[in-house]
Design a protein that fits this description.
2 domains, Rossmann fold, alpha/beta, six-stranded parallel β-sheet, single chain, binds nicotinamide-adenine-dinucleotide
Length: about 475
C-alpha cells in the first residue's frame, strides 16, 4: 500500500489531497505545512479557504485517511509519493526580478526531502514551475542523499478556484510527465494507479517531464490570452457602438473558437495567470526569444490597461472627480465562489479610486476586512519596471470601510462598482438601492452581470464593459 504526503496545504494542496483521500479510501494521505495557523484551520470547523463542496469532503475523510500536520519531516519520511504544492511566486529581487519564478520554497522542500528520506520516493511537482525545474530538483535530491532512488514527476494542477472540487472530481485531463527510463515509467504507473481510482485512463495523459512542465504554463497563458483578447475587443466595442456580449457570442459560435472564457470584464486576477505568463516571458528571454516574450507580455499589458480604463471611465463619468464621493465596491475576490484576493483587479481599481480621493464602502461575502486592509496597504510590485511602488498613504486607507451587506455598502453612495460576479449581486433589489443613493446614481459593472435595461429604467446611469453607453 502506498502512502502519500503533500507538502503545502494551500488552495491546491488542501483540496487535491482531500479528493485523493476521498476517492482512495485505502491510501493514507497527509498534508503538511510550515504554517501552524493554516494547519490548525484545516483541523478545525473553519477551513482556511472557501471552496464550494470542500468542507463536506474534508469532514468525511479527516481523521480516517486524511491528516493535516505541521510535523513535516515525519510525514515526508514515511511517504512513498511526496507531492510538493508550495507557492512559486514571482521573484521580486535579484536576477529575473519581476518575471522569474521564486523557487525558494521549492528548494527548501527538496532539501528537506533529501535530509529525511530513508526509502525510495516519487517526488511529484504539483506546484507550477518553470521548465527544467525537475532537473534542478533531481540534482538537489541525488547529491544530498546517496543510495536512494528519487523519481521526479511533473503533475501540474489545472483546477480553478471556485470550482476546485468539481474540477478534481472530473478533470478535463490529468497530466503526468516523467523520465523516459524504466524507473520513470514505473513511477508514472504508480501515480497513474492513484488517479485511476476515479479518472478514466484515457483522460490521464503521459508525456516527458519538460512537456508536462511547459503545458501548465501554456494552458494558463492561453486562458489569460483569451481574456485579454476579449477585453481588447471590449475597448473597440465602446468606441464603435458594438456590444461585446454580442461579439463574444458570435465569435464563440465558431466551433474552432468555442464559447468559454470569452466574457469581457475588468480584467483577470488570481495568483496564477500573471505570474505564470511572466515566468513564460522569462523563459523566452533566457532562451533568446525576445519577440515571443513580447507577444506574451502584451497579454498582461492589456490586462493592466483594462483596469486603468475602468477607473478612468468611473472618474470621467462622475464629472471628472470622485473626491469625497462614496463609491460602493461590490465584490473584492478575484472571482466568485472564492475568498482569494491574490492579484484581484479590485486592488488596482480601489487604489485608483482612492488615488482620486474617493470614499470606498466595500462588500464581499467571503473576504474579510483584514484581507482588504492588508491588500490595499501593500506596496504594489511593478513587474514591467521591477520596483516596489509606494503604498497608499494611511489617510487614503482611512477612506475605506468594509461592510457586511450590499445595501449598506450602496446606501448614500454616488456610484456602485461591481468587481466580482457573485450570484447574489444579480438578484439585488436595485430599485431599493437606487432610492437610497445620491443622484445621479451610477453603476459601473466590471463583470457585465447587471441587467442594464432594467437598471436604466429605474434611473441609473449604467456603464458596462464593452457595451453601448447611456445616451
Ligand atoms: P498557497 O500559497 O495557497 O499554498 C502554499 C503553501 O505551501 C502555503 O501554505 C505555505 O505555507 C506552504 N509552504 C511553503 N513552503 C513550505 C515548506 N518548505 N514546507 C511546507 N510547507 C510550505 O499556494 P497555492 O495557491 O496552493 O499554489 C501552490 C502552487 O500551485 C503554485 O505553484 C501555484 O502556481 C500552483 N497552482 C495554483 C492554483 C490555484 O488556483 N491557486 C491552480 C493550479 C496551480
Amino acid at each position: 500500500m502506498v502512502k502519500i504526503c503533500c507538502i503545502g496545504a494551500g488552495y491546491v494542496g488542501g483540496p487535491t489531497m482531500a479528493v485523493i483521500a476521498l476517492k482512495c479510501p485505502e491510501i493514507p494521505v497527509s498534508v503538511v505545512d510550515i504554517s501552524q495557523s493554516r494547519i490548525a484551520a484545516w483541523n478545525s470547523d473553519h477551513l482556511p479557504i472557501y471552496e464550494p463542496g470542500l468542507e463536506e469532503v474534508v469532514k468525511k475523510c479527516r481523521g480516517k485517511n486524511l491528516f493535516f500536520s505541521t510535523d513535516v519531516e515525519k510525514h515526508v519520511a514515511e511517504a512513498d509519493i511526496v507531492f510538493v504544492s508550495v507557492n512559486t511566486p514571482t521573484k521580486t529581487q535579484g536576477l529575473g526580478a519581476g518575471k522569474a519564478a521564486d523557487l525558494t520554497y521549492w528548494e527548501s522542500a527538496a532539501r528537506m526531502i533529501a535530509d529525511v528520506s530513508k526509502s525510495d520516493k516519487i517526488v511529484v511537482e504539483k506546484s507550477t514551475v518553470p521548465v527544467k525545474t525537475a532537473e534542478a530538483i533531481e540534482r538537489i535530491l541525488t547529491h544530498n542523499r546517496k543510495g536512494i532512488n528519487f523519481q521526479i514527476l511533473s503533475n501540474p494542477e489545472f483546477l480553478a478556484e471556485g470550482t476546485a472540487i468539481q474540477d478534481l472530481y472530473k478533470p478535463d485531463r490529468v497530466l503526468i510527465g516523467g523520465r523516459e527510463t524504466p524507473e520513470g515509467a514505473k513511477a508514472i504507473k504508480a501515480l497513474k494507479d492513484v488517479y485511476a481510482h476515479w479518472i478514466p485512463v484515457d483522460r490521464i495523459l503521459c508525456t516527458n517531464l519538460w512537456s508536462a512542465e511547459l503545458s501548465k504554463l501554456a494552458a494558463n497563458a492561453f486562458l489569460a490570452q483569451r481574456i485579454s483578447s476579449v477585453n481588447a475587443m471590449s475597448a473597440i466595442c465602446e468606441a464603435t457602438g458594438a456590444d461585446v456580449s454580442q461579439v463574444s457570442h458570435s465569435v464563440g459560435y465558431d466551433s474552432r473558437i468555442g464559447p468559454k472564457f470569452l466574457n469581457a470584464s475588468v480584467g483577470f486576477g488570481g495568483s496564477c495567470f500573471q505570474k505564470d505568463i511572466l515566468n513564460l516571458v522569462y523563459i523566452c528571454e533566457c532562451n533568446g526569444l525576445p519577440e515571443v516574450a513580447n507577444y506574451w507580455k502584451q497579454v498582461i499589458k492589456v490586462n493592466d490597461y483594462q483596469k486603468s480604463r475602468f477607473v478612468n471611465r468611473i472618474v470621467s463619468s462622475m464629472f471628472n472627480t470622485v473626491s469625497g464621493k462614496k463609491i460602493a465596491i461590490l465584490g473584492f475576490a478575484f472571482k466568485k465562489d472564492t475568498g482569494d484576493t491574490r492579484e484581484t483587479p479590485a486592488i488596482d481599481v480601489c487604489k485608483g479610486l482612492l488615488g482620486d480621493r474617493a470614499k470606498l464602502s466595500i462588500y464581499d461575502p467571503q473576504v474579510t476586512e483584514d484581507q482588504i486592509q492588508r491588500d490595499l496597504s501593500m506596496k504594489k510590485f511593478d513587474w514591467d519596471h521591477p520596483v516596489h511602488l509606494q503604498p497608499l498613504s494611511p489617510s487614503s486607507i482611512k477612506q475605506v470601510s468594509v461592510v457586511w451587506d450590499a445595501y449598506e455598502a450602496t446606501k448614500d453612495s454616488h456610484g456602485i462598482c461591481v468587481l466580482t460576479e457573485w450570484d447574489e449581486f444579480r438578484n439585488l433589489d436595485f430599485q431599493k438601492i437606487y432610492n437610497s443613493m445620491q443622484k445621479p446614481a451610477f453603476i459601473f459593472d466590471g463583470r457585465n452581470i447587471v441587467d442594464v435595461e432594467k437598471c436604466r429604467k429605474i434611473g441609473f446611469i449604467v456603464y458596462s464593459i464593452g457595451k453601448p453607453l447611456d445616451a
